[in-house]
Amino acid sequence: MMRNFSILYEITAMMMVIAILIPSIPANPVRGADDQFLNIQAKTDRSYYSPGDIIRIKGTVSGEENIPVQSRLLFQFQGMNTTANTTSDGSFSARVPISLIEPESMYRLIISAHADGYEEKNLSIPIIIMGEPSSLAPAPVIPDEFSSI
User: In this structure, are residues 140 and 47 in contact, taking their beta carbons and an 8 Å threshold?
Assistant: First the structure.
């Protein structure tokens, strides 16, 4: 009985090592020869939030050589997804709500940009949710700009 447990333990340990050492391979769509790259630059209004707050995001979407691109945007955050479109100058602003029951932790806000003739682009922004600010909380200042370039 003890030997079976030891073998099971060794197999489990090897599987965990393999899972850690083998990187996951993302499924990328096939890129057409004429597709161009999109760049997303975005800024949130604060460095941390509380449950029930609203994340306000402003930014721009551009193509190669910083040419503004009109695109469709999807903001994904803990199931509270929002969509928006850029203006003719490539700029956007959006408001993404935070659930009242979201536990304290660090999360990711994912911004996806879609435009005809361009490869889809995603940008991941860290979002910190705290019930009440503590002495360990980052200073409540506007964070640096995030970019997918």
Answer: yes
pLDDT (tens digit per residue) in 2-35:
455 455 555 555 555 454 444 444 444 454 556 7
Structure tokens at 97: 């709500």
- CA–CA gap between residue 110 and residue 83 (Å, rounded): 12
Q: Specify the pTM.
A: 0.67
The encoded tokens of residue 118 equal 């361009």
Cα–Cα nearest to 53, from 124, 2, 104: 104
> Which has the higher per-residue pLDDT, 85 or 100?
85
Q: Are 130 and 104 in contact (CB under 8 A)?
A: yes
- Per-residue HEC secondary structure of the chain comes to CHHHHHHHHHHHHHHHHHHHHCCCCCCCCCCCCCCECCEEEEEECCCEECCCCEEEEEEEEECHHHCECCCEEEEECCCCCEEEECCCCCEEEEEEECCCCCCCEEEEEEEEEECCCECCEEEEEEEEECCCCCCCCCCCCCCCCEECC
- Per-residue confidence (pLDDT) for residue 62, from 0 to 100: 96
